[in-house]
Amino acid sequence: MVTRLYNARILTMAEGQDIFCGEIHIEDSRITYVGQENTSNIPFDQEIDCQGNLLMPGFKNAHTHSGMSMLRSLADDKPLDAWLNEDIFPVEAKFTGEDIYWMSQLSVLEYLTSGITACFDMYMEQEDVARAMDDMGFRCVQTGGVNDFSKDVCSIDYLYNKYNVPDSLQSYQLGFHAEYTTNIDNLKKIASVVQKNKAPLYLHACETEAEVKGCVERYGKTPLAFLETLGMFDYGGGIYHGVWMSEDDFCVMQRHGMYVVTNPGSNMKLASGIAPISEYLKRGITVAIGTDGPASNNCLDFFREMFLVTGLAKIREHDASAIDAREVLKMATVNGAKAMHLDDCDVLAYGKKADIIMLDLMQPNMQPLNNIEKNIIYSGSKQNVKMTMVNGRILYQNGKFTCGVSVQDIYKKVEEIKHRIIK
After folding, report:
1. Alpha carbon distance 404, 396 (integer Å)
2. Which residue among 133, 182, 240, 346 sits deepest, i.e. has the most Cβ atoms within 10 Å of its Cβ?
3. pLDDT digits (tens, 9 = 90+) for 134-185
4. Are 349 and 34 in contact (CB under 8 A)?
């Protein structure tokens, strides 16, 4: 399939390149041309007039739990520890792999409407998650969610070597749920898998004040400082949340070139706190953005997350200039791709994967076009997502899903799961 997207404004997200008018050519899954109008006589299978709307790299949801979509609005207005232990964990224990397959597909539908072209997913029954993502043509990087109550450590070694194959929509990074849900014996086993594969590692860390205090009580060190002593980060990796950070934790991240994925909507709703984004940037730590799961957020709306990243940083720093809109767009695209090890999905350029979105600039919330990048962050919304393309295939366009699945079947299946589990 050879596709031409023309008459477009283009934001490549390449360093130093401004928005320009032009077109993009795609052959199968890769971009073959990005530039000014091309008059060469190329035979195209499809040509799409973008009518002056914006083409840019898709957003990378760098932390989520796709299989939790049935839990949306089931347990709200509680602190994290009570929310997890009293409501979420007991219901999750009843999920089957088939349940998670359908619930993951529901989340993908929402990702597509929000311009998300890839997610970094941590959940149970990961082979069923991969099946769901493949069936919808969606790009997914999974990471291990090992803890004392779920899969054993051997599973992350197996899946890491199973899914990391060239040109697949599915890939895998080593990971575990969190220090506070994983005993010391399992932590040491996880560290050995890291050393065996010479691979980066990802986990929830420093999300709440209570979590950090608990780790200090157990091991005499804050979470990252303690896990570093086990060799967890010898090959890099990253953390999700990173709200309650000590000087030691910042230094661990700097030493090992680690990423942080901020989840402002979830952290705000659970009253966990506001991540120190300005401090991360000052220290040269790469920041990406995630929605967290649909049980804690409760939506998978990347426009809301992007606004909250800068809005909450301004409040935290008492500085209206904190975190410029262009920096947030970089977190949402380029930095997310880096954190997820999707090196071919960061910018729009020759040879890169065709993970592209089109934003409708002709909606009232985007007018006038004083500054398109700032419009996206400060006034943009899901209503502006006109097209979402993953791997060269359009999966969502003009309000309709084109990913080859029955949306009504997905809704029906998730409703059936809810009625079976929630008595």
Report:
1. 10
2. 240
3. 999 999 999 999 999 877 899 999 999 999 999 899 999 999 999 999 999 9
4. yes
